[in-house]
Each structure stands twice: as structure tokens, then as C-alpha cells.
Amino acid sequence: MSSGATSVTCPVCEQPLGYTGTPGRTLSCDAGHRFDAAKQGYFNFLTGKGTNFLEDTSAMVQARDAFQAKGHYEPLALALSQLINSHHHGSSLDVLDAGAGTGYYLASILEHSPADERDALALDISRFAMRRAAKVPSTLAVVWDVWRKLPTADRSRDVVLNCFAPHNPAEFQRVLRPGGICIVVTGEPEHLNEVIEPLGMLSVAPGKQAALIEKFDAEGFRHLESTKLSYRMNLNTDDLFQLAFMGPSGHHLSPELLHQQAIELGDQAVTASFGVHAFVTQG
Length: 283
Prior knowledge:
By secondary structure, the protein is α/β, with parallel strands linked by helices. It has helices at 58-69, 74-87, 104-112, 127-133, 169-175, 208-217, 237-245, 255-265; strands at residues 18-19, 26-28, 34-36, 43-44, 92-98, 117-124, 139-143, 157-163, 176-187, 221-235, 268-281.
């Protein structure tokens, strides 16, 4: 097996899943549960279960893909790659991206890893995001709710990436190997503060770092470090629309109105500010 399936477990019975039939098209377990890939290459493990959370829409994902393609968040992607490479030195790298979105950060991590073998499992509730993540080399993209038990075996992953997504530290602890690293990325309070109000975006609440560290400490993680990455982005009106529409605000913003607001606002220098928090498993 390859492309993320080496340690993937059945969401029904938790037995190991393996490819059967045409490579990359069907996953099944010994109990007979079977999952067929969508034509875009991703698997949907939420079939029949559903989720209480809203998936990012096709339009939101298109906006995110367009914004990321321009390299505005490339400094963050490179910082994540460097952090992982400084911590993990094995010949193989197994990554779980919990809340992977388009797979943008995951793709950078896999591309810049010196490991001889790379294997990744990308999880997100958005089918439209997983269509893009499925194109990342060595990656199995699965529609799944990261609040639930993650469909990968105990101690099967070297790295868990949790970038702008819900935190499930108990599950992250379960799936990481001893000494594995979990990287959580959050927005800092000043993140995008020049355009949050005029574009009707959701702001970042202050004081989250202490609560985050306490939450992970309670599940047996050791806080390795927290660093702040801040820089300025020069954004045109298309960038501003994509920035506002690609995130949680996109669920309630009118794209037509947002386009007009971005045009009225004009080109802007905008602060990008991220908190990058690293936790390691004990033992």
C-alpha cells in the first residue's frame, strides 16, 4: 500500500484498510467494509454518518486555492517544513494533516522533506477541499470530521499538522509515535487586522495560546515551543476578496457584496501573523 493507506483504519470497525482491485480506487477491510474513491481521487468516510459542521463550499475552496497559489502564505509553509525537518530525521515520514484544506501546507512539507519515503493522510470535512488534496503526491485524501476518532492506527504517524482547524489533542496523542511532533497553527490577534472590519471577517480572539498549551498538556503532550511569524502582504482587490471568502466568514458573506467592498477598499498592505505551536509526545 502507499499514498497514505499504510496505517489507515476502517471508520466502521477500526480494522486496517487496504487497497483492493484497481490501485488507489477501492479501500476495504477484512470485515467487508468497502470505500470507493470519487472520480477526483478522494475517499468519503462520512457516507451515511454525516457531520454537524458546515463544509467549505466549492467557491470558498476555489478562493483559497487562488490565494495560496499567489504565494501569500508561502513563508508559513516553508516555516512548517523547516520545523519538521529540524525535529524529524528518519528515513521515512508519515504525516497526518487534520483539517488539511487544499493540502497546500502538506504539499510543501512533503516536497521539502529529506526522507526517502513519504506518506500522508489528509482529512477535512469538505469534499471540495479533498478534491485538491488528493492531487498532493504520496497523499490519501479522506473526507472526515476531525472531532471524531481519526481513521489511522495507534502510533502510526511521525507528524500531526493542525493548521487553522479544530484541535483534537487526545486523538493526536493516540496516533503519534513516541517522540512525534504535533504542530498547531493559529492566527495571532493582529492577523489581517487592517481588513477584518471593512470586509466583515471574523477576528481572532486574544489570549488563546495559554489555553491551547493547557489543553495539550492535559493530554500528555510536552510543549516544545511557540513562535510567532509576522510579515506584510501587498494585496490587490482580487486577493482581498479571496482572503475574506476563503475562510470561515465565507459561509455568511455575500460574494457579490464582498467583491464590491474589496473594490472600494482598494489595494492594501495587510499583516499576516501566525502562532506556530509545537508539541511532542512523551516517551
